[in-house]
Amino acid sequence: MRFKIYLLLKCQLLFCMFSTWNAVSGQIRYSIPEELQLGASVGNLAADLGLDIKQLSARSLRIVPGSRKQYVDINLDKGILFLKDKIDREQICGPRLVCVLTLDAVLENPLNLYHVEVEILDVNDNAPSFPKNEFRLEISELAPPGARFPLEAAHDPDIGTNSVQNYQLLPNDYFILDVKMRSAKGKLPVLVLHRFLDRETESTHRLTLIAQDGGVPVRSGIAQITITVKDANDNSPVFPQSVYRVSVLETAPKGTLIISLNATDLDDGPNGEVMYSLSSHSSAEVRELFEIDSKTGEIRVKGNLNYEESSTFEINIQAVDEAPDAVPEHCDVLVDIIDVNDNAPEVTLTSLSSIVSEDAPLGTIVALFNTADKDSGQNGQVQCLISNKLPFKLDSSSKNYYRLLLQHLMDREITSRYDVTITCRDAGNPPLTSRKTIRVEVSDINDNAPRFTQPLYTANVMENNVIGASIFSVAAFDPDVGQNAKLKYSILETEVQDASVNSYVAINSESGALFAQRSFDYEQLKNFRIQVHVQDAGVSPLASNVSVDVVILDQNDNVPVIVRPLSEYGSTATETILRLAEPGYLLVKVSATDADAGQNARLSYQIFQATHHNLFTISPDTGEIWTIRHITNKDASKQRLVIVVRDNGTPSLSATVTIILSVVGSDSKLFSNVRGLSEYPGFNPDMNLSLVIALGAISLIFLVILIILAVKVLKSRNALGGQHYSLGVCCCFETGNSLNGRQKANRNLQIPPNYVEVFGGDPLSQSFRYESCSTLQSTKRDFMTHNTCRSSIRKNYVRNECIGKENPGIMNSENYSSIVSNEFSFKK
Description:
Mean pLDDT: 78
CATH class of the largest domain: Mainly Beta
Radius of gyration: 66 Å
Helix content: 10-25%
Largest sheet: 4 strands, mixed
Shape: rod-shaped
Number of domains: 6
Low-confidence stretches: 1-26, 667-687, 720-828
Strand content: 35-45%
CATH architecture of the largest domain: Sandwich
CATH topology of the largest domain: Immunoglobulin-like
Distance between the termini: 170 Å
């Protein structure tokens, strides 16, 4: 145990000497013994590289083990290489004398590469061992002294002095041991006959063979040799050469002839017929790859050769005749495997920046990789390239290492990612190729402003819309991605009709949907324009504006307004017509207006009710009312027309006006019976019940007033005595601006825009105006021809009208009595 500790200390001292020499020489090489504990220090890499320990993590110092398993790693806190996995030199390097682990240390920012070699020193941790615990030999008693019998060599996985160094044979009377030096496999124990054997005296000999290595302490292995003495041939087969050397391609197919051996035996008959075989010394690998014809001695390929696994094989051939006591002869065949280009290059990615910003500068390192080819010589020389259509290039800055550099500027909106195929080809004939694809994602920067889908938007909104309802939506897009493409909408501050635009519409900042903040009225506002602003969420945000014309669409929400004829009492107007009016006589023109537009303002006129339906007609387009025929004495002196005005909207809206026509002329009466209104032939029994009740009540009141007035008139006549006056009286219903029935309607009548129609009223509740003519002797024709005297009569007789302008509805009884008296005189 003390000796082992001493050996370890000696190895570590040797390792320190190597480390110091390597650092000075510029080549980093360490030596360590095998079987060290995990975590054991290999060397201070940071100190040997002259690096500051504080920069190791920042510069991402790491170990790239290459194609082998990673046995060592680096402690970034101390900069020391340490064992990461158990190292067994025999498992890693086998029988090779020099066992070196090749590592690459990679530093970034800037990128540097250092080659590190770790030599694994052998430790005598294996004892020699024989392939068999017992060797059995048959030796003829005719075997002469000096006959040699090669034995199977002991195997020790260790190398150098730690491998098999010596063989010993325990003392005996017949055999001695000779150690033969072989070219490739070290020493071979050979049993040498010291004197003639005598089977009759001793038929079996048992010997002990000891193999020893040169380690400290010495390790050994033992095998037993059992020799059976037999009678055998006098002559053994003889090979012309003891060693043969041949070469074969590693791609040689099975059955390929390697060499044909020819051993000779001077005996005759069966004792001279030689049989060939692989000796027991041949390894299992040799037996798998090669075979020999027992009669011809031809050695052929049996398995698949691989230069990269083993470049040389030693085949031990045994030749023996067929005699019972044949003595075998041996020779060695050394087979050199010729390398063939049967391995494609291997590409190992060392470092990769899979995401590169689209504004990365030229020369940016995208990836670092190395190549290797198991073949040798020219077959192992590798060259790599990429497509010249990519914005990258390859730079070979070190042996078998390549850097992928950015050669041209990138635009993510054109190409968001690149699949870079690296093609590596060796220099063999024919060359072999390997490919590796690296995906490089291009990261986005905010280099594109949002853009609307249209240069100008038009939003059509129906008036009377619901407040808060969506009326339109604008859309913008940004070719960028992520936060750079996240958009926010807003409305720029402007004024519409002296109010902020935000009191009219609002916008969803995420979707761009516009919402009404008020209910629009087409009659007050027909259109307005807003400016929508969109901005992305990138660093140094970009923005765009677009105009949206909001057009208010008309809805049929206004009923027609009748502006002519004007009435003083709600929807009732009064007009007069001569009984002698000819057919086609223009009575009046009904005019209406509608605040809506388009079809909603297109009006049509219709007679809804009439005292006589065959007496008047109306133009549906102009509203002109015409007589159809002559007015006869049978026609009532008061005609009632209900005119309805409809627009062309959906649904249609309408308004009505009632026109009371007083027929004046020869046999007309100033006052018609109140009940006559209810007895008109054209009276419609479906009239609104409320209107019928109102008319009945007014008629009853008016009848009572007439009776009272009649009594007062009689008293007045008695007071006058015999004085009689004849007065031509004309009575009409008028409003303040009524038009005479003989006038033509003005087609260009201007309608006040804020006109409001007032419904209600009835002809029986209106004031009457009476005008007397100054000529008492005129006939009915004189009355009609002098109808123009109304204005002058009004000055003389209508000082106190039936209903005054200041106090309509209040009647002066004295004036009324005098006028009625004049009327009665006129009738007489």
